[in-house]
């Protein structure tokens, strides 16, 4: 994957450090320096993360000689989850758990349990799973299209990342077959989800990133048009974007897609089961974003977010059956028999499909409309409160579920985030520019006053003691002037720590 970033303000310090890193990255001096920093970061991550997991029980590094009693296994899990569930049950976690009401969770768990050994790879054995999957696709498509007038086609996936990867793969294969484009490019805003980077890395697509509008934080249309080339196969819009909660100008982008004969994917992973209902509730606040816009060729919508299903459930949709065909994997000559799957995985969990169907059926249109109203009101209350906090300023419109804010007058926003963590809140730290956001969910209903009170206190504390001593303030402070290369090496340490015993 090649990445071009167009129209980004030039930073001389980044240019110098990147140039020096590229020259010396293979030198023993640089490699030793990176290893030294990796050791420091590993120690910090280990202290922050692994201490908690190691306190649960004795660490296991090989199979037990004799199987453990079922009761002992479950007792360990009950003890662990009793502690771990407190933050989200008390509405202190940004995103992550989107519904959280125990009656709904029990339904999903029961549905999953009944289908825990089923596999949609074998529809002849589990025809009910095939029924559920096709109906999930149809119900989701009906939210974002006029299905009776213009049918939409799709498949379920394991999550938003797979949905995005498959949509990009479908466009790559379609434009290669029908337009002979063998050096494909796609254009996105810098706030596009990292799943796009993954997809282009895996699929050999040149990724071109362009700046955002400095006020709306949606993609800059002038920069977007300038980035298009004869090899462009698609553009990418967020509805809304994960960092700032901004909805890209999908209607304007759709016109460009039609004029240029290229695809337009709308990443509605976060907004898929909020925006359709928000548009009914507050039509003037929500711009057009779905298949009703000419030019939109695909969409991704996560049922495991505001569809309130368990994790591991998403839907990818296409304007045409031909484009969906380009998503499929088909191998006629395999010695194991003719083989085809609609998505990347072979075997998949029928339990995840069953519980997702149960979620959609149990809540229905009225349930989703009610929860959308709750989430929108929580976000509006927090938005209004943030605007009253001296030292903070909003980034983006906060018209849906994301409220994003940064510091001003020298306030270190990462110190604010660390102070909120000490008060039991789990917010998302973002960068370029430095900021925090809260992704509002059903769990936050009634928690607005507590959040804003703690936020004001966190700001006051950050003013009194602004030093970057530990936590995210220290990490983001250290990496802010470094090029991507060494930072990526440090990020690998995080994965190492998570995966080690």
Which short descriptors sum up this protein?
alpha/beta
Your description of this structure?
- This protein is of the alpha/beta class.
- Helices cover 48% and strands 13% of the residues.
- It contains 17 helices and 14 strands.
- It has helices spanning 12-24, 28-54, 70-84, 86-89, 102-114, 127-143, 160-179, 194-203, 221-227, 250-260, 275-281, 321-325, 350-388, 413-422, 448-464, 471-479, 484-499, and strands at 3-6, 153-157, 185-189, 206-210, 232-238, 263-267, 298-301, 314-318, 329-331, 339-341, 392-395, 402-407, 428-430, 435-439.
- It has an eight-stranded mixed sheet with strand order 1-4-3-5-6-7-8-2, with helices on both faces. A four-stranded antiparallel sheet has the order 11-12-14-13. A two-stranded antiparallel ribbon has the order 9-10.
- A hairpin with a 6-residue loop joins β11 and β12.
- α14 packs antiparallel against α16.
- The longest helix has 39 residues, at 350-388.
- It starts with a strand and ends with a helix.
- The mean pLDDT is 93.
Secondary structure topology:
Blueprint lengths: L2 E4 L5 H13 L3 H27 L15 H15 L1 H4 L12 H13 L12 H17 L9 E5 L2 H20 L5 E5 L4 H10 L2 E5 L10 H7 L4 E7 L11 H11 L2 E5 L7 H7 L16 E4 L12 E5 L2 H5 L3 E3 L7 E3 L8 H39 L3 E4 L6 E6 L5 H10 L5 E3 L4 E5 L8 H17 L6 H9 L4 H16 L2
